[in-house]
Amino acid sequence: AQTVTQSQPEMSVQEAETVTLSCTYDTSESDYYLFWYKQPPSRQMILVIRQEAYKQQNATENRFSVNFQKAAKSFSLKISDSQLGDAAMYFCAYPPGGGTSYGKLTFGQGTILTVHP
Amino acid sequence: DGGITQSPKYLFRKEGQNVTLSCEQNLNHDAMYWYRQDPGQGLRLIYYSQIVNDFQKGDIAEGYSVSREKKESFPLTVTSAQKNPTAFYLCASSIVLGGNSPLHFGNGTRLTVT
User: What residues does A106 pair with on adjacent strands?
Assistant: First the structure.
């Protein structure tokens, strides 16, 4: 079965510090996309960042960046200069079947991030 | 502003009753999805639809049904056959049914069945 694993149920960080959330996945595809979604207390899922597996360069969106290691099937999210508004549950996700698959995502179990002032 | 509207936010039903959750989008997206979220678990796909009048089962479709009569609407019916219906339900859409097309989510419906 193709799975996504987030091994950290909870993480915490001080405001302005950096935190890294880990994610590993299992796929037999060579071309696919990876996503990080954020779910704040409002419970709406918000796309944080996405990575295309065929690209060597790690994706970056402002304070959010990924460390993508394709051979290790690892896709971690780094949040720099953490802010109180970053507090949320974070989900790693990818579409089984690769980049040309239907847009069905498999999600990890989530990591709850707490930001301390 | 374009977006996805799910209603109601909270829904309560008695066991044995069917219940329909509403999902409407004005993003002009072709693809729509229903996910279920339980505590301690990630989202799991119930049904998805690529175009009007077409839909496919996801990973946990048993006890659920959907329709897609209009591009904008993708209602989910939780039937009495669903053994554990109490959960948080999220509707989503994407431009097309493709692996690189990011999902846009609604605010969800919390269903409680007693």
Answer: A94
Of A66, A67, A33, nearest to A48 by C-alpha is A66
Instruction: Report strand pairing: B109-113 vs B10-13.
Output: parallel
- The tens digit of pLDDT for each residue in B7-43 reads 999 999 999 999 999 999 999 999 999 999 998 778 9
Consecutive sets of 10 residues in chain A, 117 residues long: mean pLDDT of each? 86 98 88 90 91 88 95 95 97 75 79 97
Which among A32, A103, A110 has CB closest to B31?
A: A103
Residue of A4, A27, A43 for testing the chain B interface, max B β-carbons within 10 Å: A43
List B31's β-bridge partners, or say none. Answer: B94
Q: Do A103 and B94 touch (CB under 8 A)?
A: yes
Strand ranges, E, within chain B: 4-7, 10-13, 19-25, 31-37, 43-49, 56-57, 64-66, 76-78, 87-94, 104-105, 109-113
Residues whose CB falls within 8 Å of the CB of residue A2, separated by 6 or more in sequence, listed in order: A25, A26, A27, A28, A96, A106
Nearest Cα to Cα of residue A87 among A46, A116, A45: A116
Tokens of B107: 């605010």
Per the structure block, which two tokens stand in for B41? 């678990």
Q: Are B75 and B23 in contact (CB under 8 A)?
A: yes
Q: Which residues of chain A does B105 touch, with a Cβ-Cβ cutoff of 8 Å?
A: 44-46
